[in-house]
Amino acid sequence: MKIFSPLYQRAMQWARHRRAPWFLGGLSFAESSFFPIPPDVMLAPMSLANPRRALWFALITTLASVAGGLLGYVIGSYAFEMIEPWLRASRYWSSYSTAVEWFHEWGFWAVFVAGFSPIPYKVFTIAAGALSMALIPFTLASLVGRGLRFFMVAGLMAWGGQRMEVMLQRYIDRLGWATVIAVVAGIVLYRA
To answer: Does the keyword field hold Lipoprotein (predicted)?
Structure first.
């Protein structure tokens, strides 16, 4: 059953849209402070569709992500009491608690590692503000950590280029179903 092929085709069309860099910047900004979808879902296909501009896309993603991270920092600094009840009731509370532990243990390095951790970056930005982390180290750690992640994603996609796009197009349905099976198996094993 070919469900993933049409989705892949649509994603590649959107990746080539003339306004895609603006959407990428908006998504990157929003994800760093309040939105649940990571920018990699746009950055990867955009870099794959246009390898010559991959580093430009990574730069847009990094700068917009850090700007959104600064908004998350402000939310943590000035509005944490307002969002704390929601945060406690959400699935993000355990991630927030982990981020706070990491800040107490590693300080500056917690933000740097956040760029690669499975814990959403927005949790770290809000925690940094709530814990009153110094703004300049927070910004520098965000630039380096997020930048490394996004330039790595863009670079790998650009390196794969047209060959990878063709190969993905050929095997996308198999990869998609394998991912679904792996997720279902993971959930079953987790609950067992």
So the answer is: no
